[in-house]
Amino acid sequence: MIRILLVEDDRELNRTVCTYLRQNGYDAVGCLCADEAYDAMDGTPFDFIISDIMMPGTDGFEFARTVRKWNPEIPILFLTARDDFSAKRRGFQAGIDDYMIKPVDLEELLLRIGALLRRAKISANKKLTIGELTLDAEEHGAYLKGKEIPLTVREFDLLFKLLSYPKKTFTRSQLMDEFWDCASASGPRTVDVYMTKLRDKLSECRDFEIVTVHGLGYKAVLRGNGDE
After folding, report:
1. Distance between CA atoms of residues 188 and 44, nearest Å
2. Cβ contacts of 149-154, under 8 Å, gap ≥ 24
3. Which phi-psi region, left, alpha or beta, contains residue 146 (left: φ > 0; alpha: ψ -120 to 50)?
4. Are the C-beta atoms of residues 177 and 88 closer than 8 Å to each other?
5. In the chain, which residue ranges form alpha helices assigned H by DSSP?
6. What is the rounded distance in angstroms from the CA atom of residue 128 to the CA atom of residue 150?
């Protein structure tokens, strides 16, 4: 059973989310602060972490950075009332994988957990195969019908991200936050340049399409399975 650690100082919300997760097949453990969470993680393996940002003592940013030192792979989702861009930037820089705003929609939370767990499984396997295309994260290599496709590190990371979450739209800002340094002078439209390069390099691949979501960003749509 998948074990989820919830770090949330609102007792009622903590209880509500944990109960909902248990009703949907997860083993959920609730903690009210980072120190309690550290104790819970001592000797007990978890598969997923949900954390608030504003908590007594250690805040979510420091907690996420500490967890990342211990475990580079475990999915971390921030569940917070903070809807400002600076908080999101700090969260992703600390190593989180997703960010949700309170009040929480429990059904959406469940969907995001499922998506992140699938991504974690892909990451653990280090390979992602879509039809005749294989992405090897260990060597940052892309192969179409066994032939290597020359991709830069950033092109590979962008493609791996999109194909790990088929049909999920990522905004240009989200992709910039994750794959460009915060000190970069590049603007969000730089993402467009990279998507054009990826489409060109993968023009012979018929198993998926990088779709522009006008006004938002990009998503990968798999072909031949009713997703188009």
Report:
1. 41
2. 149/201, 149/202, 150/201, 151/198, 151/201, 154/179, 154/194
3. left
4. yes
5. 11-23, 34-41, 60-70, 85-94, 106-125, 153-164, 172-179, 190-201
6. 17
pTM over 0.70: no
Query: Quick check: 227 pLDDT over 70?
Result: no
Q: What is the pLDDT of residues 142-199, one digit of tens each?
A: 999 999 999 999 999 999 989 988 888 999 988 888 888 655 557 778 999 999 999 9
As a whole number of angstroms, the distance between CA 183 and CA 196 comes to 24
Q: What angle do CA 160, 178, 71 make, to 5 degrees?
A: 80
Using DSSP's 3-state secondary structure scheme, residue 93 falls into helix
d(CA 54, CA 209): 40
pLDDT at residue 45, rounded to an integer: 87
The Cα-based distances of 106 to 64, 80, 141 in angstroms read 22, 14, 37
217-222, strands of its sheet edge to edge: 170-171, 217-222, 208-213
